[in-house]
Amino acid sequence: MATRRSLLAAGLALPALTPGSGPAWAQDVYPSRPITLVIPWAAGGSTDVMGRVIAAAMSADLGQPVVVENRGGASGTVGHGIVARARPDGYTFLLGTNSTYAIAPHLMRNLPYDNRAAFTGISLVARSAQGLCLHPSVPANTLAEFIAYAKSRPGDVAYSSAGIGASSHLATELFQAKSGTRLLHVPYRGGGPSVQGLLAGEVAMSFVDLITCLPFRANNQLKVLGVGTAERSTFAPDLPTLAESGVPGFASSTDVIMLLPAGTPQPIVARLTASLQKALRDPATKERLNAMAVETIGSSAAELDAYWTEELAKWGEIIRSQNITI
Fold first, then answer.
1. What average pLDDT does the segment 248-273 reach?
2. pLDDT averaged over the chain?
3. What is the pTM of this model?
4. 74 in Cβ contact with 163 (< 8 Å)
5. Cβ atoms < 10 Å from Cβ of 49
6. Alpha helices of the chain — where are they, by DSSP H?
7. Residue 5: Cβ-neighbour burial (10 angstroms; 0-12, 13-18, 19+)
8. 31: cis peptide before it, omega within 30°?
């Protein structure tokens, strides 16, 4: 009987000692099932497309599907709240944009999560430059001419945005603060309708991501006076920055970061970080993102933390000084 018990104990122990042969070992392997990447915006937008490209590359590296789940609403804070409440086990993470992680905390009262404490930052993933776009009917072909035109009609020159608190809205508020202009805000329900309003001549100007505005520029449907990034975009090097064109200190772009729920074990954080960095270095992935006029970055967690602090301070100051409310 003792021999039988010994053999039985040894048999039960084998799955835990032999890799891949039993549940005890499987529990220590990450990932062992599909992972969810939450996009806090509707399907079809630039952040959604970017997320799907990155998810595909990470799936190949991790050996498990990375499934994109679109959870839009409340300026992106619905998706952030879902990830903030998720189990910190590495099976739910998030792509956020400036409008959610740096702007919404200053505009949205009673957020259901702590904007910094609820998350573990992985990386500043990528950057999409915004172009200052005009309808062709606007009698201005340079930034200086547009500023003079707007100043001659204070409060009458209309601009579109994807909604109150969107990056296109705050970029224009920053532009007004630094250029001394006063424009009329016409918020739309999303980036697509905002661009359509500009193309139809319902408004005079808007800040639009380059992936969207460059084709319209090529077809003479829009004028693009410059880009909002601190340096010229490699995807449109002929376009000057707004800072070099007469608005010193202006810097605004759509910047995407990756976040996990706070408390995620460090080995899992390290595994996802390595997978993301590998994806961003992959030539095929870079090519697909570059085709969207998206610059891949792949910062460290420390660099992300410093950047996040700067973005919160910058947009908080603009929101307070311009008295922006929802």
1. 96
2. 90
3. 0.84
4. no
5. 18
6. 2-17, 23-26, 46-62, 77-85, 98, 104-107, 143-151, 167-179, 191-199, 210-218, 266-281, 283-290, 301-321
7. exposed
8. yes
CB distance 285 to 54 below 8 Å: yes
Give me the residue label for tokens 């799955």: 15
Q: Is the dihedral of CA 218, 41, 38, 230 positive or negative?
A: positive
Question: 203: how many CB neighbours lie within 10 A of its CB?
Answer: 23
User: What pLDDT, on the 0 to 100 scale, is given for residue 13?
Assistant: 42
Helix 266-281 vs helix 46-62: crossing angle, to nearest 10: 110
Single-letter residue type at 81: G
Show the tokens assigned to 229. Answer: 């990034």
For residue 178 the two structure tokens come to 């630094």
Average pLDDT over residues 161-169: 90
Rounded CA gap, 247 and 76, in Å?
A: 29
Task: Encode pLDDT of 183-238 as tens digits.
Answer: 999 999 888 899 999 999 999 999 999 989 999 999 999 999 999 999 999 999 99
CA distance 167 to 171: 6
Residue type, 139: P
Distances (CA, A) of 311 to 18, 52, 100, 146, 254: 49, 25, 11, 27, 11
Contact criterion met (CB below 8 Å) for 127 and 229: yes
Q: How far is CA 162 from CA 72, 93, 310, in A?
A: 13, 25, 23
